[in-house]
Amino acid sequence: MYRDGARKSLWQQEVKKFDLPGLADSYDVAIVGGGITGYSCAIQLQEAGKRCIVIEASNTGFGTTGGTTAHINTFFDASYDQVINDFGEENAKKLAQAGKDALEIIKSNIDKYQIQCEFDERVGYLFSLNEEQEKTLEKIWIASNEVGVAMEYTPDCPFPIPHTRAVSIPGQGQFHPLKYIDGLASAFNSKGGHIADDCRVTDVDPSDTHLIINTTSGLIIAQHVIYATHTPPGVNILHFRNAP
After folding, report:
1. What CA–CA distance (Å, rounded) separates 13 from 187?
2. Most CB within 10 Å of its CB: which of 13, 132, 159, 201?
3. Radius of gyration, CA atoms only, the chain
4. What angle do CA 71, 18, 2 make, to 5 degrees?
5. Per-residue pLDDT tens for 63-119?
6. Angle at CA 237, nearest 5°, toward 233 and 242?
7. CB 55 within 8 A of CB 199
């Protein structure tokens, strides 16, 4: 597997290539992006009776999924106090619930499709290094509990780093991300889903009855297109940061 960054991924030897199907066929849904978002979406739609194709510009896991850590968190880089401040408490609660739902979907898929991806339940930790960070940690602790993501102060932090205070966050997980989406992709393929690697979408043209997807491998006809990429095309000329 090739990665889009300068550094090699820990996971880059783990993904196989899938055969490219004929692209003259018509699909109910075309999913653009062969990462964890794309295949999580594709397998659910395929099982719901839709005829689907996943279109990936490079190879499975090329983008964020292939370069991610092994962590599955219900807390994020944008802490819940920040999210409440920027988007309000109700939206922060929706984000928290989405994180919980994502973890449950992953666990369900692992069990349902018997995916060997080294999944293990874990406890997460956050800690402060000084008094100023203690104040930040307290804000995170209060906001997380407000939105339903349990955090509790703990005297036991397993990291050998000097710190002033620490919180534990139960109900987290870890796994091998590319073994996981390889299992999803295989299940999707076995259920009749099509996979087009090395196939970049260049444009989507609407007609009266369907969408014409122009790709580097030919035309694909679909009723719907889902972008499972970073920021979808057309949102902004320049993409610097994108809030959840």
Report:
1. 20
2. 201
3. 20
4. 55
5. 888 888 889 999 998 999 999 999 999 999 999 999 999 999 999 999 999 999 999
6. 70
7. yes
